[in-house]
Specification:
The protein is built from three helices and four strands. It is of the alpha+beta class and 89 residues long. Strands 2-1-3-4 form a four-stranded antiparallel sheet. A hairpin with a 4-residue loop joins strand 1 and strand 2. The longest helix has 14 residues. The relative contact order is 0.25.
């Protein structure tokens, strides 16, 4: 399985959207400051994710979410409005 996910930085009130094959490994990398672009915003919490059969589907969905350029849409997904799994923060 592949995943499109939304992370949330409580410290900076910031969201991050990405895709990967293993969410727990990816979240570990973020929170251990192994990803240069996101390390200033640690800690990250998993707020939302969607499952896909292929990496291409997950990547396309990530792009679709980012293309909207809308915090309101991201908050809609995170608050249970999407078809994925909402993870309470």
């Amino acid at each position: 399985m592949f995943y499109t996910y939304i992370l949330y930085s409580t410290k900076h009130n910031r969201f991050y959207i990405g895709h990967c094959e293993d969410i727990s490994v990816r979240l570990h990398r973020y929170n251990n400051r192994m990803v240069p672009s996101t390390k200033p915003y640690v800690p990250w919490l998993l707020a939302y994710y969607e499952e896909y059969v292929s990496r291409a589907e997950a990547s396309n969905r990530e792009f679709e979410i980012k293309k909207k350029k809308s915090r309101r849409y991201i908050e809609y997904l995170v608050n249970g409005g999407g078809t994925g799994r909402h993870v309470p923060i």
